[in-house]
Amino acid sequence: DREQSDGSEEEDDSDAKSGGEVQGGENVERGEDRAMLKDIGVAAEELTPIYIKCENCEEEFDVRSNERGDCVWHPGDKELADDSSFWDDHDWQCHGDPNDFVDDAAYDEGFIYSCCEKSGGAEGCKVTRHK
């Protein structure tokens, strides 16, 4: 990976392939559709989007249109910001362990990412292709 001037990283061309497989025959076309496409000179594969889930951002993407910059994510973990004033009024005995709220967007300001030390609600610090 190469680092961009804004501090984010970018994959090089050797990582351009998406690296994922379609499972369970989700993209199998009916035989009659293939025959129709063959009659008009279009390969079925050219029209069939193949969607898989990205390992990094966990969003679905079409492997045939996976461009550099499509995936924005954090390579680090979302951690509790103990010294943040966000938690000043939080009563652990009443409201529970703050770590239980790591996936709740309403509590993003009480967490930071270990990779960039930005707020838990910040846009990803790494920009790549989907994987």
Structure described in brief:
The chain is an alpha+beta fold.
Question: How would you describe what is shown here?
Answer:
With 131 residues, the protein is of the alpha+beta class. It is built from 3 helices and 8 strands, in the order ββααββββαββ. The strands form 4 sheets. A two-stranded antiparallel ribbon has the order 1-2. It has a two-stranded antiparallel sheet with strand order 3-4. Strands 5-8 form a two-stranded antiparallel sheet. The longest helix has 9 residues, at 31-39. The chain starts with a strand and ends with a strand.
Global morphology: elongated
Query: H/E series, N to C?
Result: EEHHEEEEHEE
Number of strands: 8
Share of helix, binned: 10-25%
Distance between the termini: 13 Å
Give the strand content: 15-25%
**Biggest sheet: strands, sense, closure?**
2 strands, antiparallel
Quaternary structure classification: single chain
Give the helix tally. Answer: 3
From the alpha carbons, calculate the radius of gyration and give it in angstroms: 21 Å
Query: Regions with pLDDT < 50 over 5+ consecutive residues?
Result: 1-5, 12-30
Strand order of the largest sheet: 1-2
Mean pLDDT: 76
Q: Helix/strand/pairing class, anyone? A: alpha+beta
